[in-house]
What we know:
The chain is α+β, with helices and mostly antiparallel strands. The protein has helices at residues 3-13, 18-25, 29-36, 44-54, 58-62, 67-74, 78-118, 143-146, 155-172, 210-238; strands at 125-131, 134-135, 176-180, 187-192, 195-206.
Amino acid sequence: MTIGKQIKHFRAERNFSQPELAELAGIEQSYLSKLENDKSIPSNEIFRNLLSALSVNTQEFIDAIDINENKQQLNQIPDIEQLLSQKDKMKFQNIRRYLYISSALIILGLTLFYTGSSKQLFNETRYQSESSGVALADEPDDIFSSWRNRMDTNGEDGRQLMRAKRLEMANREDTHYLVFREYKGQGFMMDVTGGKRHYRLDKEEQIPRQINAWLQIFGVLLLCSGIMGFVLERRLSRR
């Protein structure tokens, strides 16, 4: 569709004859005929008069016109040139917005995926520490593991003391476990009622956490959304 064909289309749609439209627009019928046959381009003033006579606005007038094929012709009318310039500016802003949003989605997606896969934010390692019992205030921290080395086992008296101490330590034995997400070292002390407990690292194990899997899933979704945004931007820029 060209400018001339569009004038003719709206004239026919409103049941105007050429003389009637020419009179309403304040131009000669012969000049209107030239316009409809694309043998002339209306001035901006005449273009406005035609739009007023046809009761259409600039946007409605150019809607059916192939802008890419007729851009040089359209730009000769200042009102249309200004409208196309505004549309190009809005298109550029939309494309830039797509790029910003798409870039942000890709960065956020990669960050979430890395966070979930590396398990740095939500650690899946569990450290279990074991304490054999409560050491008294005046006893060594490792009394439950070292008491045998501190006994004199020579002679009958020594053996009796060993048996008595073994019975005492067996009665005092009260195994307790603590589980931590962070590494506390191979051993640490903790004050408790009646004395203190010496905890030593018993084992560490990996316990999967669903949140890490969800972070990876959301990361992939955001990454794909960002890539799709770039694809849409390319399509918009070609229009």
